[in-house]
Amino acid sequence: MSSALERYPMDGSIAGAAPGGIEEVQDRIARRIDDIAARSPIPVEVPAATGPQGRETYGWIDFGHLPNTRDLGGLAGDANARIKPGLLLRSGALGFASDADLTRLREAYHLAAVVDLRNNEEIIEVPDPMDAFPDARYVHADILARSAEGITQERETQDKIMRERREFERAMRSDSGDGLEQMYRYLLMSETGMIGYRTFLRTIIACDEGAALWHCSVGRDRCGLASVLIETVLGVAWDDIVSDYLATNIFATDQQSFSYPARESALLAARAAAEERYGGIMSYINAALGITPAEVEELRKRYLA
User: Fold this and answer.
1) How far is Cα 273 from Cα 189, in angstroms, rounded to an integer?
2) Mean pLDDT across the stretch 98-125?
3) Which of 174, 179, 199, 262 is 20 to 30 A distant from 24 in Cα terms?
């Protein structure tokens, strides 16, 4: 057992093998939602106990120590097609995985690409165990980079990144009460966010065999917006996107969901920012991230059935 795994607070998590299949998982989810309502010191938004048709358990995978690793497979996308299972995975940090979890990712999911959305400090503290995936490509896409170092050589872009970062930190220090909404707008609209999410989608485009997995620390904010982007590319309805996002509050641990839960208002703030500047999230994907309509069509052909 790794030291990272030993440090991981699993209180409240429903992680662990579910030999009873979907019925057992649905029962765990329903009990977890009741438990959150009874014990959380703050309001926590959760989706319906039963997810959308074809993804009733929100794609949750019964890993032992990766409580918020989920498969997008089953989500309804463009033209009523569904996302193929086992190919697009959202997660928290892989450094908390057990050996059995890593083996399953390698052998059952044939993990081919990992996009790490964390910053350097987080990676140093809990690195991804990429030695467990010798054939997988590891891509670092720091969405919340504190500087332009290692991101770009262009002076104008460097200055913009530093200016945006100062403005963001100033806004987060203010007592406006909408810190999460401000952070989500920054994640999506800042230069570092755009560079990182462009890298994320480019990695998905390049991954034509095996599964692609993306993660931050918990699998909620940076990972949540990455999931919004690929789900939008594949034509998933907004209500299902929101449900997938809020499901993190079910699968994360008490420490995570009770102190800093996902909120729909944050997701709406990011969408509003994309609409204001680009006309919508898909237009943001095309114009800001440079993903062409032909590439969108390619991804839909690859991942929808």
Assistant:
1) 7
2) 96
3) 262
pLDDT confidence of residue 1: 41
Mean pLDDT is lowest, of 37-46, 84-93, 162-171, 207-216, for 162-171
What's at 190, amino acid-wise?
Answer: S
Nearest Cα neighbor of 106 from 126, 122, 128, 79 is: 128
3-state SS record for 257-275: HHHCCCCHHHHHHHHHHHH
Report which secondary-structure segment, H or E, holds 213.
strand 211-215
One-letter amino acid identity for 89? L
| Of 86, 112, 84, 301, residue with least CA distance to 206 | 112
Using an 8 Å Cβ cutoff, are 149 and 157 in contact? Answer: no
**Distance from the Cα of residue 99 to its chain's centroid:** 22
Establish how many alpha carbons lie within 13 A of residue 15's alpha carbon, considering only the half-sphere containing its beta carbon.
Answer: 25
Q: How far apart are CA 81 and CA 3, in angstroms?
A: 42
What are the residues facing 77 on neighbouring strands?
Answer: none
DSSP string over 101-132: HHHHHHHTS-EEEEEE-S-HHHHHHS---GGG
Q: Dihedral (C-alpha) 245, 257, 212, 143: value to the nearest 10 degrees?
A: 90
Q: Which of 211, 256, 247, 249 is nearest to 228 (CA)?
A: 247
- Residue 163 tokens, joined: 């200016």
Distance of CA 41 to the CA centre of its chain: 25
Alpha helices in 143-280 (DSSP H): 155-173, 179-189, 191-206, 222-233, 238-246, 248-251, 254-259, 264-278
